[in-house]
Predict the 3D structure of the following.
Amino acid sequence: MITSNPHLRRQQQRILRAVVVSSRCRKKKYRPCNNQIIVRRTLSSSTDSNASEKTARTAGDDTLTVDGEAASDDCGIAAQVIKPRPIFPWRSSPYPLPRLVMPKRSTSKDDSDDNESNATTTDEEEYYDSDYFTKGGPLGPGWFSPMEPWFRGALYAYSMHIVLGVGLLQIVLPWKRKGWEENMEWCFCEAFLRGVNGMIYDTYMINECDDSDRNESVQSDESFDLVLDFDHTIRKHKEDSITSGKDDKHSMLDKNEEHCMLQYNLRQLYQSAREHSLPSDVNIVLRTEPIRAEIESMFPVFGLSRKLVSDHPNMRHSYRNLAKTIQRKQKEKQLEGKNQKLNFLEIATIITKGLDDLMQSSVQLSDDGSGLITVIAQVSIHCREVFCVKDVVTGEILQGYEDTNPRDVTHLVRFEIVVRGSPELGLDIGRWQISDWDDLLDGNVWFI
C-alpha cells in the first residue's frame, strides 16, 4: 500500500527502483567482481548546494550492489561493471542473440491492487526496453525499431530482385525460392568459415604457416560439408618476431579493403586482442561445422557505401537528417490545425525525394560516377562447435568449455555488398564482405 507520508513514499519508490535495477542486472547476467569495478565519483560545484544534493542523491540511487553489500546512499559513489577483454573475441552459445527473439509480455499480477499498476508499468517498460526493440530486432543496430514483418519482407524482396537480380516469381513462390535460397545460405556458411580461418591465420599465426596450411583448415566438398578445424598454441615470447611480418601483411590488406573477406574494424578487433590481451602461452581450439543457415534480414542502403562515408563524413547522417525532415514536416502539419498528421502518401513523397537526392549525391561523389547501393544481410548460422581457450602454464580455462563435446551454437553473421549502377554500364555487383558477427562490434554501423 502506498502511504501518504512523503518521506515513506520516497523510500518505497527508491526500493522499487532498486528492485527493477537488480532484476535488469540479473537479466543481463552481470557478475560484479572486485577487479572488474570502476568507481566513478560525482563532482559538483560547491557554490550550488541544491545541484550538489541532487547529484549526490542520483548517484546513490543508481549505485549497484557489490559482493552482496549495498553501497551507501550517502557516499555519492556509483559502481559500474566493466567486462574483461577476451583473448579471442568469440561467442559460443546455443541461444540466438537476444535482439532476434521477440519478448513475451508478462501476465503475472501482484496481490496488492496498489502494486499491480506499478508492476504492469514495469513489465511494459521492460518489454519495450528489450534488445528486440532497442537494437532493431532482425534488422539490427542502425534501425530505431524492428519494423513490421511485412516491411522486412519488402526490404528483402527488393534487395534480392532489384539489386541482386533474382526473379520476382523466384522470391514470391515458396517452392521456387527454396532451392536458390538454400544455395545462398550455404555460400554464406562457407564465406563465414573462410573468413574466420583467414582471421585466425592473419592475426594469430602470421609467419608461422604458408597458404597451403591456411586452406587445409577449412575442408569442403561438392555436398557442402564444411568444417573448420583449428587447434594451435600461441606463444607469448614470439610476439616480437611476429610483429615484424605483421605490419607488411596488414598494410597490404588495408590497401585492398574492398577485396578483404573481413572488414577493417573486425580485423582490428582481433589484432587488438592479440596484442593486448595475451597474458601467457594459450591454446586455442575451435572446431565448428555448420548444420544449416537462415537469412534473418536483408535491406538496401541507398546512395551510401562504407568507403563513400569514410571519404565524405558529412554523408554519414543522411538518413538521420531525413528522419528529422519528416519530424519537422510533421510539426508544421500540426501547426496548421488540430490533430493534423502527415498521411502515408505525404511521408512516402518525402522519403522518395530524400532517397533520390541521396542517389544523385552518390553519383557526384563516387569515383566512377555510379550510383551506390549497399545491401546488408544478416544470417544465422547454426553449427556444431567445440571452443576452448586454455592457459598452457596453469591449465585454466579462459574461454569456452574444458570438454571436447560438440555443442549446438548459433552465430549471427553480418554481410554487406556494394552494388554500383549507371545507365551506360548497368549494375556492377561487388563482393560480399563480413562486417561483424554476433554483434561483437554492435553491428559495425556506418550509415546512421
